[in-house]
Amino acid sequence: MRVRRRVTLLDVARAAGVSRTTASYVLNGRTEMRISADAHERVRRAADRLGYRPNRNALSLRTATSMTFGMVTDFVSSGQASSQMISGASLACLDSGHLLLIGETEGDPLVERRLIEEMIDRQVDGILYATLVSSQVQVPAPLAGCRTVLLNCRDRDGETASVMPDDFGGGRAAARVLLDAGHRDRVFVVGEEITPGGLSGAARLSGVRTELSAAGAEVADVVACEWAVVPAYESVSKWLSTGVRPTALVCLNDRVAMGTYQAIGEFGLDVPADVSVVSFDASELAGWLRPTLTSVEVPYAHLGGQAVHALMRPEPLRPGVRAVAMPVRRGGSVRPGVM
Amino acid sequence: MRVRRRVTLLDVARAAGVSRTTASYVLNGRTEMRISADAHERVRRAADRLGYRPNRNALSLRTATSMTFGMVTDFVSSGQASSQMISGASLACLDSGHLLLIGETEGDPLVERRLIEEMIDRQVDGILYATLVSSQVQVPAPLAGCRTVLLNCRDRDGETASVMPDDFGGGRAAARVLLDAGHRDRVFVVGEEITPGGLSGAARLSGVRTELSAAGAEVADVVACEWAVVPAYESVSKWLSTGVRPTALVCLNDRVAMGTYQAIGEFGLDVPADVSVVSFDASELAGWLRPTLTSVEVPYAHLGGQAVHALMRPEPLRPGVRAVAMPVRRGGSVRPGVM
DNA sequence: ATCACATGCTGAAGCGAATCAGCAACGATC
DNA sequence: GATCGTTGCTGATTCGCTTCAGCATGTGAT
Predict the structure, then answer these.
(1) Which DSSP string corresponds to B60-96?
(2) Cα dihedral B256, B259, B262, B265 sign
(3) Would an 8 Å CB–CB cutoff place A266 in contact with chain B?
(4) Quick check: B146 contacting A, CB < 8 Å?
């Protein structure tokens, strides 16, 4: 069987007995051009019958717009963050007929450069530059002159539009949960980063401190550890073996909370009877643990969606960070409130 | 500042003092056209100096190829599978200068249809049709006539090229691990699906059975439960409370294994001293649990890469399933082998 | 001097669409 | 009956690129 050529506008025009121009006007709903109802009808029918679909690349050549956005990420496969951002971005594109080009750099600046150039070569209408962990970045040179939104990151001078989670607000929310449950003393924070990789840890901690001190309480101490299950388990075990007995713990993410659970369990302490635990991320993990975790969600999908919406708006992007609220997801890890 | 127009081939040609044709031949390395070394040099310099980059969409118009693949998935945000497939596909695209368009359907056939059409409108050179859970699918109508590779799924008649994990082989590998550790009796399987959503469960179970019977052993019984932590915990708890005492468990995925761990722990049994556990997925979870899980990996990234490579090859796609091996990832959940 | 051939380039067409400018045909107006 | 305005279209150009066909010029053979 011969490969059948795609149906073009000319085919439709011929089938309808009109010129390409007329067909174009009809199919684009350009009413200012006075086309008879009859011609209108004939073109529509022909397009339908032939299954006409416009060639977006040809269109892009004329209109200098491709209805396509690019998304560059350092890591997509690790964890939920990237994939949820992709998901949110992809879904936000859908309504408006945009599509999303994606590229994973694995943190390699050369790959990053190549991907961005390839995207610009395809005339993308804008680029999402995303990082797995919330961080401060140097906007890559090839992005200069390209409509760009930073996603889960920001640049040093705040010159580029950026969408980030409000970790500070999230920290305050976490502290509020504990305060509402009557916790005022022996509230500890677990997960201060040894080698800070991102911005979220410090912001969350700062939020917790702010909210507690506004209520006249304070963070009793901070336990440092990597944001991973095993290191958290080890750090908390060691720490508990010094005899400290917390009544409430703020774990700076869910993996830290999981390690903390394991350590707490081994010391015969019960969550939430002996220790309340609040965490961040509200990942699947939060639902798997027993009791389920009360965790402050990072709305990654929403971030992705917001970033795409920013790209889609006609006006110029306004510089600076747009902070997205982090809602508290209630689990069973905080003792019931004291009235 | 005026928006500066992109540099076109004509700009380069003018700067080099040659025709567009000559510039094109030089930049595309078309040696059969006899260009003097001098002109060659001038064009190269001009292109470099002006920072020329070809407009891929214009190019696609001429060559009917876009150096872009599409990837349609039902769910990208849930779990690691999709994101790893995306990652593998994206990376495989990189070397050859391809880029990946992605779209998430959320299982909606209408959205699926729209996404596929949008991709075809952008002249993609091929489409990856992926599903989160390994399953049998009906290839969507708009894909007819489009170079398509099914990813983590297959069609009923095997008429479409497909890349899938070798779950049967994985099942055999899991059983082999237990056999090598001397397990022959009281080997149970946990996670037979109540409402089978995918193909992998049955294939894994069948692999386990095959390998065991080849060694003269057999599966003592199968515990049914959903593939999620809490249901697995509940099912295994109930099951253990009937007094059964397994010596080895094959959990059909890591989340089932996690729930199983919780149940086992509550019954005072030790992994691996009392019970060996082997699982599937080799997700992050496998490393978080204590002891770490021995788990048969589903090489999602590799699947994605393979699928892209299939799309890239010049020859026609050959129908049928390409099964990708699932390697065993050793953890500490299986008792040391008995010689 | 003529022809053949290689060398080194260029002009123009065409890919599929949008869109500006123009142009017949027709009725109404003065 | 000449002018005007409206209606309903179409031709030609353009976007950036590839590529076929052709065309000067120089060189060696006859």
Answers:
(1) HHHHS--SEEEEEES-SSSHHHHHHHHHHHHHHHHHT
(2) negative
(3) no
(4) no
CB proximity A89 to B under 8 Å: no
Whether residue A8 lies within 8 A of chain B, CB to CB, comes out as no
- What pTM was estimated for this model as a whole? 0.92
pLDDT at A1: 34
Each residue's pLDDT, cut to its tens digit, for chain B (339 residues) gives: 344 578 999 999 999 999 999 999 999 988 888 888 999 999 999 999 999 999 999 999 999 899 999 999 999 988 789 999 999 999 999 989 999 999 999 999 999 999 999 999 999 999 999 999 999 999 999 999 899 999 999 999 999 999 999 999 999 999 999 999 999 999 999 999 887 779 999 999 999 999 999 999 999 999 999 999 999 999 999 999 999 999 999 999 999 999 999 999 999 999 999 999 999 999 989 998 989 999 999 999 999 999 999 999 989 999 999 999 999 999 999 998 754
Residue of B nearest to A120 (CA): B55
Comparing alpha-carbon positions, the chain A residue that sits nearest to B57 is: A57
> Dihedrals φ, ψ of B323, to 5°?
-90, 130
Size of interface A-B (CB pairs under 8 A): 144
Name the residue among B55, B102, B145 with its Cβ closest to that of A86.
Answer: B102
- Map tokens 């990946």 to a residue: B100
* B residues 149-208 lying closer than 8 A (beta carbon) to A: none
Are B207 and B175 in contact by the 8 Å Cβ rule? The answer is yes
Contact B264, B275 (CB under 8 A): yes
Q: Note the residue count of chain B.
A: 339
- Cβ atoms of B94 and B39 closer than 8 Å: no
Q: What is the Cα–Cα distance from A11 to A50, expressed in whole angstroms? A: 8
Q: Do A286 and A297 touch, CB atoms closer than 8 A?
A: no
Q: Tell me the one-letter amino acid at A226.
A: E
Which A residues in the span 231-260 are in contact with B, Cβ-Cβ below 8 Å? 233, 255, 258
